[in-house]
Design goal:
With 168 residues, the protein is of the alpha+beta class. It has one domain. Helices cover 34% and strands 38% of the residues. The chain has 3 helices and 12 strands, in the order αββββββββαββββα.
Amino acid sequence: MKIKTTLFLIILSTSIYAQEIGELDRRNGFKEIKLGTHIDSIKGAELKKEIIERKEFPATIYETEDPEYMTIGDVAVKKISLKTYKGLIYEIDITTPKDPNIMRGLEKLYGKATYSIRTESYYWKGESLSLVYKGHRKVLKLTYRSGPVINLMYEDKGKKVEAVSDDF
């Protein structure tokens, strides 16, 4: 009987964990800003600068200050920065003042975070995206990253290498 109870609890805890991480994938971003969507669909997105991401990929940084995105509960959002590759959003950076309620809300929604000693941050990983929570001196930074768009960046790089090798 004890074995059945233990097995049931393990299965139950695994399914609860999977549902919480599934929520991260289901939401796929912050509020109405979804990873993998075109930047034109974001209200108030303003071009800030062109960059070279990871020393090899052309990308663009946009920011938005649309009032719809500028609060998390009763916490004011200081800045929302969006990185795009070929117009598709692959990273959302949200900066807020330090507030313990943000971490509590994230853990309630997505489950317990994993702590990374190397980066001194907490993170959640879904099937197609990740969310990193990092505290700085006076602010918190939440970073959502899209796996599929980052994979697209590397696939495009591979195509360029193949095109060069075909010229020989």
